[in-house]
Every structure is written in C-alpha cells, then in structure tokens.
Amino acid sequence: MSPSAAKSAAKHDVFQAIADPSRRRLLKLLAEKEMPVNEICGHFAMTRTAVSKHLRILADSRLVSVRKDGRETRYKLEAEGLKEVKEWVSFYEQYWDNKLSMLRHLVENDGAAVPLHAAERPQAAERGENAE
What's the CATH architecture for 3-77? Predict the structure, then answer.
C-alpha cells in the first residue's frame, strides 16, 4: 500500500474516529438534530478549535456531514457510516452467544461436555480421544 493510500485509509477509519470519548459524545449530540458549530461548542468544555478538530475527524470518516448555511457551518450525523461498526460488533455478539449456549448446556447437564458434531467424532477417535 502506498503512503498516500495508507493515509487515505487512516483518514476514513471509523474505528479510530469513534475511539475518542469526545467524538462519541459529538455523535450522540448530533443524533438529536443538525447543529451549527457554535451550538455544539456550548455542550463541551473545550475550545472551538478543539471541537472543530473533532468534527473534522468525524467528517473525514464520513460519520457527519458538513453544510454551509450562509456564514454558519452546520453538522449532521450520518449514521450509515456506523454500519461497519455494527457489522463488526454483530460478529462478536454471535461469538459470545455461542459460548454462552455452550456454558448453559454444561450447567444444565451437570457438567457433561457438549457432544461433538457427528462429523467430528471419527476424527477424534482417530486421534485416540474420547469422542463423548
């Protein structure tokens, strides 16, 4: 990957953008309504420059849109950008659901191991393992 391509990919990394607690708060605030930068600044104990920097990172990650309205700059949440995060979290949600189902089975069956799938039994027997 070329340096410019790497920089461009990093510029649009949703996970890096939401890693900062202030930016997550900005997203939550903008979920309510489109807001001008002056109104947004009123919700944070930081300088306008700092708020603008966070908004620029969110805009570069396509999590907020920027619109000029006369002399005012307005920001709006673009929730579609969070789809990548939702898909990533969904994978691990499925993973933990499977692990909890196995644990539930163990508890409900007095510690009996979860039976191997039929396709796995011959392989376990070949290795000299107890398949049950």
Answer: Orthogonal Bundle (1.10)
